[in-house]
Amino acid sequence: MSKQRPIRVGLVGVGNWATYGHIPALRLLPQYKITAVCSRSMEKAAAIAKEFEIEHAFDRVEDLVSLADVDLIAVLPPAQEHAWIVKAAIAAGKDVYCEWPLTTSTKDSEELLRLAE
């Protein structure tokens, strides 16, 4: 039986949800590998990448979603930011995990569902 390559995860948002929850949890699961992080602050992204030995750090979502080393985008910032980030990830052909709520409006959520189909 061949061993599958881990799912390569890029995290958008590196606040407490990420540093105390998602990053430690994903590091325990061999089927996932965090390959990139993104924050509005490059200093913050670089510090988290260094602390957790993550290869790539970005301060632009567009750069993260275009990275070939990422299969899945985890969207962790405040809810009002979710819609445009999920839209960028879908447009780049990435799978998406989004913290709740998906968006702050039914209209935006319906648009994302249509784009993902």
TrEMBL record:
InterPro entries per the UniProt record, alphabetical: Gfo/Idh/MocA-like_OxRdtase_N (IPR000683), Gfo/Idh/MocA_oxidoreduct (IPR051317), NAD(P)-bd_dom_sf (IPR036291)
Ranges where the Gfo/Idh/MocA-like oxidoreductase N-terminal domain occurs: 7-117
Q: Which Pfam families match?
A: GFO_IDH_MocA
Q: Record's superkingdom?
A: Bacteria
Give the range the annotation lists for the signal sequence.
Answer: none
TM region positions:
none
Molecular function terms in GO for this entry? nucleotide binding
* Protein's name according to its UniProt entry: Putative dehydrogenase
Q: What is the lineage of its organism?
A: Bacteria, Pseudomonadati, Acidobacteriota, Terriglobia, Terriglobales
